[in-house]
Amino acid sequence: MVTNDDGIGSAGLQTLARQLHAAGYDIEVAAPLTDHSGSGSSLGTLEHGAEVAYKETRFPDLPDVRVLGFAAPPSFVVMAHRAGLFGPSPDLVVSGVNPGHNTGRLVLHSSTVGAALCATALGLRAIAVSCGFAPNHRFDTAAAVAVAAVEWLADNPVQALLNLNVPDIDLAQIKGVRTTSLAPRGLMGLSLERSADSVRLLRFDNTERLGVGTDSAAVRDEYVSLSMLRGVTADNDHGALDAAAAIERTLTHHDTPIPVHD
Predict the structure, then answer these.
(1) Do 217 and 156 contact (CB within 8 A), yes or no?
(2) What single string gives the DSSP state of each residue in 62-83?
(3) Within 13 Å of residue 203, how many CA atoms lie on the same side as its CB?
(4) pLDDT digits (tens, 9 = 90+) for 94-126
């Protein structure tokens, strides 16, 4: 299953679908009808009885590939396919190609990564792939890297989320693939400005203080960054046990008993 957060009209999505199809994979494209960037793993709504519209279409150069557009974020799309509403559950989910690198702490807000996280939370394998913004973006290079990653993941049936960030250069110019940690700063920075009646969001490029061995630094240095992200987990370490004990003591000795509910 190929998805993204920019909508079914996105050139990055179509480039990725074409390259996966050319490589011989049986694909289905399912993505939002409109842009849902920056919404993380949002489902759009949790209202009981809500109805989410979808429609079927085709890409002119891929007439045998079903394309479904949803009035919802990509995580909802992933959930609907995992539930088997549109046929057998996909073997893996490939999300992208996103215009704008998803590195550092920015992955928290990315719906490209969010869709892949949703997939792994539902027991699927997933890949998220991103390159830079226009006019320098190279969807072709990023899609080729994604196809190589799909080949590995298809042959190694481990539940994993590979977050790939690809420099905007020719495939032959890439220096290699580095396994990386999350940088303290994403390649894209965000700033906020307040006015009398609004808050304005501005993007800017981060090129310094990206850390050593990080995803942001690898892309800056013309390497593909590969970060294997975890899904939703709980770490009940010593700190968690201390917190639980302290809360319990406070509730036990409170003058007025505090009701505790599941």
Answers:
(1) no
(2) EEEEEEEEESS-HHHHHHHHHT
(3) 10
(4) 999 999 999 998 899 999 999 999 999 999 999
